[in-house]
């Protein structure tokens, strides 16, 4: 297998394209199939439509299935219309059940049903079974292509069976043991089998301490289990304890990427709009509700300023420090939000405790506020004709604003999480705007209290 690096990538690509254009099937197959699957995908994406049509002719459906599985969903949708239906059906029959279920689940029901009706009966039933589970659950991302063992099988017989069935299994590094009722009772690693005596029974070498997940567990919980135990795969069981599938580490990596993208979208108030494939109209439509809500909150900010209009008219210089107060509080709250949301995702808050977390963030906010206050109480008099009272007002306001901002940034995602809503929905812009309102109220309240001394 050839793995391309930047130095020989262009030269190798030219050789593949040359063979493709010349219609030299054997040369193309030799060069192309020698590549790592990831490089095959990257090279295929670079082909134009005419070149792709030749690829469909030169590769078998099973060979192209490896490429199709490596494509992004939008790319799969784009290229599937180029395939002959018979070729597509044969390709689907060669794909992993979980990858195919992910793809068909994104197609219109009529189209997906057409493909399923033309597939092999057993494969189609497996896919329909996976599609029946709620999205983003263990059942939805698991694969049914696993090898289950009986407790009474001999180690030598299992190894013989692996030689036959391994090519069709998702992984063989872990082999799960079931009883007569299909319930999960143990696990055997491939290493255990290799070092076992030929006549040893599976029940003698298996471990009964099996970590598993339920079909309805959230996919993020599944990812955390695999991360916690450093598994390559985790078994999925039904409510009755029967083994129904496995989730492998490569599926979990996709889940982590998906969840991270979702959290970034939530925190930045751009949920569903971080995909660069979206049109300007689609992106604007997804962002608009957040922008409108934030604009409404901006009216509240304007209302706070309007409430202290007399204070501003008396000392216009106070307006100079509005951006400083708002930005500092907003940024501090967003930092705390990021810390808390990440801690909730990793489950570390349960170990630390909510009270301890809030206490720590309050202390952090007070220390940050104190540092900023000390700098401002010295800098402002130097810049504004020795106005020490103004420096003190801004410093005290900023100290109080940052102290409150960290608590708000920590408390809101914790409350939202308690309500069983994704804490990332407490977006950065939302926290920022809320802290802007609080910080302005604190600033003008302090300024009003010391108004006679500022003038």
From TrEMBL:
Q: Which residues form the CBS domain?
A: 142-204, 206-262
Q: Which PROSITE patterns match?
A: CBS
Look up the coiled coil feature and give its residue ranges: none
**InterPro entries in alphabetical order:** CBS_dom, CBS_dom_sf, Mg_transptr_MgtE_intracell_dom, MgtE_N_sf, MgtE_transporter, SLC41_membr_dom, SLC41_membr_dom_sf
Show the SMART domains listed in the entry. CBS (SM00116), MgtE_N (SM00924)
Q: How does it sit in the membrane?
A: Multi-pass membrane protein
Keywords of this entry: CBS domain, Cell membrane, Magnesium, Membrane, Metal-binding, Transmembrane, Transmembrane helix, Transport
Task: State if Transmembrane is listed as a keyword.
Answer: yes
- Please list every transmembrane segment annotated in the UniProt record, as residue ranges: 290-308, 314-341, 362-384, 390-416, 437-454
Subunit structure of this chain's protein: Homodimer.
Write down what this protein is called: Magnesium transporter MgtE
- Biological source species: Caldalkalibacillus thermarum (strain TA2.A1)
């Amino acid at each position: 297998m050839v793995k391309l690096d930047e130095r020989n990538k262009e030269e190798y690509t030219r050789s593949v394209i040359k063979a493709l254009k010349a219609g030299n099937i054997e040369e193309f197959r030799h060069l192309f199939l020698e590549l790592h699957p990831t490089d095959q995908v990257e090279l295929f994406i670079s082909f134009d439509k005419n070149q792709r049509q030749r690829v469909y002719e030169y590769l078998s459906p099973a060979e192209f299935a490896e490429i199709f599985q490596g494509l992004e969903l939008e790319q799969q949708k784009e290229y599937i219309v180029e395939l002959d239906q018979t070729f597509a059906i044969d390709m689907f029959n060669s794909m992993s059940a979980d990858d195919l279920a992910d793809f068909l689940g994104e197609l219109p029901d009529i189209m997906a049903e057409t493909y399923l009706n033309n597939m092999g009966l057993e494969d189609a039933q497996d896919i329909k079974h996976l599609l029946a589970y709620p999205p983003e659950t263990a059942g939805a991302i698991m694969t049914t292509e696993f090898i289950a063992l009986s407790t009474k099988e001999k180690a030598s017989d299992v190894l013989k069976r692996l030689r036959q069935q391994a090519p069709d299994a998702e992984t063989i590094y872990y082999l799960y043991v079931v009883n007569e009722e299909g319930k999960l009772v143990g696990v055997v690693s491939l290493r255990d089998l290799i070092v076992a005596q030929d006549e040893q029974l599976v029940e003698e070498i298996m471990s009964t301490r099996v970590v598993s997940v339920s079909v309805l567990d959230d996919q993020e919980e599944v990812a955390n289990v695999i991360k916690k135990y450093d598994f390559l795969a985790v078994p999925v069981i039904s409510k009755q304890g029967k083994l129904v599938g496995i989730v492998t580490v490569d599926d979990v990596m996709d889940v982590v990427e998906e969840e991270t993208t979702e959290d970034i979208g939530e925190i930045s108030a751009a949920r569903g709009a971080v995909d660069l494939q979206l049109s300007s109209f689609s992106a604007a439509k997804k962002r608009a509700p957040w922008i409108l809500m934030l604009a409404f909150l901006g009216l509240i900010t304007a209302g706070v300023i309007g409430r202290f209009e007399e204070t501003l008219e008396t000392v216009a210089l106070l307006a100079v420090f509005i951006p400083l107060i708002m930005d500092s509080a907003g940024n501090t709250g967003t930092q705390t939000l990021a810390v808390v949301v990440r801690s909730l995702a990793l489950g570390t808050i349960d170990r630390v405790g909510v009270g301890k977390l809030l206490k720590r963030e309050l202390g952090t906010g007070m220390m940050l506020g104190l540092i900023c206050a000390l700098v401002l109480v010295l800098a402002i008099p130097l810049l504004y004709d020795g106005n020490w009272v103004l420096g003190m007002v801004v410093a005290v306001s900023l100290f109080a604003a940052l102290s409150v901002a960290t608590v708000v940034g920590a408390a809101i995602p914790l409350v939202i999480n308690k309500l069983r809503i994704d804490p990332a929905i407490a977006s950065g812009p939302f926290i920022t705007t809320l802290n802007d309102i609080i910080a302005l109220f604190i600033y003008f309240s302090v300024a009003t209290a010391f108004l006679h001394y500022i003038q």
